[in-house]
Amino acid sequence: MAHRTRLKICCIASIAEAQAAIEIGADALGLVGRMPSGPGVIDDDLIREIASSVPPPIGTFLLTSETEPDRVVEHARTTGVSTVQIVDDAVTRCVHEALRAELPMVRIVQVVHVVGEESVDKAIEAAPMVDSILLDSGNPSAATPEFGGTGRVHDWSLSRAIVEAVDRPVFLAGGLNPDNVTEAVRQVRPFGVDLCSGVRTNGSLDRVKADSFVRALRAAI
Fold first, then answer.
1. pTM, entire model
2. How confident is the model over 207-221, as pLDDT tens digits?
3. Which class does domain 6-219 fall in?
4. Beta carbons within 10 angstroms of residue 100's beta carbon
5. Which residues have a Cβ under 8 Å from the Cβ of 87 and sit 6 or more positions away?
6. Angle of the 93-102 helix axis to the 69-79 helix axis, nearest 10
7. Residue 145 predicted with pLDDT over 80
8. DSSP secondary-structure letter at 198?
9. Nearest-CA neighbor of 188 among 135, 117, 131, 146?
10. Closest CA to 106 of 159, 47, 169, 62
């Protein structure tokens, strides 16, 4: 049986959007906590409200920019999500170890921003500590750090190298839309894809774009 590429829709801003994303076919929802830049940020109370409304097995991913172990743990605990997505790829393994110790039922996704060959090494180093890797196109070292939602496509050949090098599921993000996702999946062969702006109009989830994206995604199988 062919692998079905999972779909994560990010920047969910309400219970209604969460329900719509699930109806569209999302396997996981991204809920964006405090960030120095980028779209989709909502407060922790709303993240918790949305997460508590989502039925299993749909994943609820908290995007956290926290980097201190105790603050990452507290952010996950207070929002009640099933998964923590750590968007800063410079965190130390102490963060992963703290999450494992304090919240063993919460899954860990480490973002790796694909900027060059060094990103492959970074993914290989992180993989044993986490449940999955998410490849994005941010720029954490910018004057105002970018941790996602840039709408930029990165080098998919590096993403494919990471998929082949790690023994963890890999999500592909970064500038995906209905026009390029079929080719992206064919080139990279990720476990799942993740997007925010590619299925939105004026910041709101667009059912027409989302349905078009899902058709293009399934065409890659």
1. 0.95
2. 999 999 999 999 986
3. alpha beta
4. 13
5. 35, 63, 64, 65, 111, 136, 138, 147, 148
6. 40
7. no
8. G
9. 135
10. 62
pLDDT for 22-55, tens place per residue?
Answer: 999 999 999 999 998 888 999 999 999 999 999 9
Q: Counting Cβ atoms within 10 Å, is residue 38 exposed (0-12), middle (13-18) or buried (19+)?
A: buried
Asked if 32 and 10 count as a contact pair (C-beta separation under 8 A), the reply is: yes
Report how far residue 172's alpha carbon sits from residue 168's, in angstroms, rounded to the nearest whole number. Answer: 13
Residue 3 pLDDT level (bands cut at 50, 70, 90): confident
Domain residue extents for the chain:
6-219
How far from chain centre, in Å, is Cα 58? Answer: 14
- Name the phi and psi angles at 146, rounded to 5: -110, 120
Mean pLDDT for 154-164 is 97
Instruction: Give 75-84 pLDDT, tens digit per residue.
Output: 999 999 999 9
Amino acid 2: pLDDT: 57
* Rounded distance between C-alpha atoms, residue 154 and residue 175, angstroms: 8
Distance CA 110, CA 166 (A): 13
CB-neighbour burial class of residue 55 (10 A; exposed 0-12, middle 13-18, buried 19+): exposed
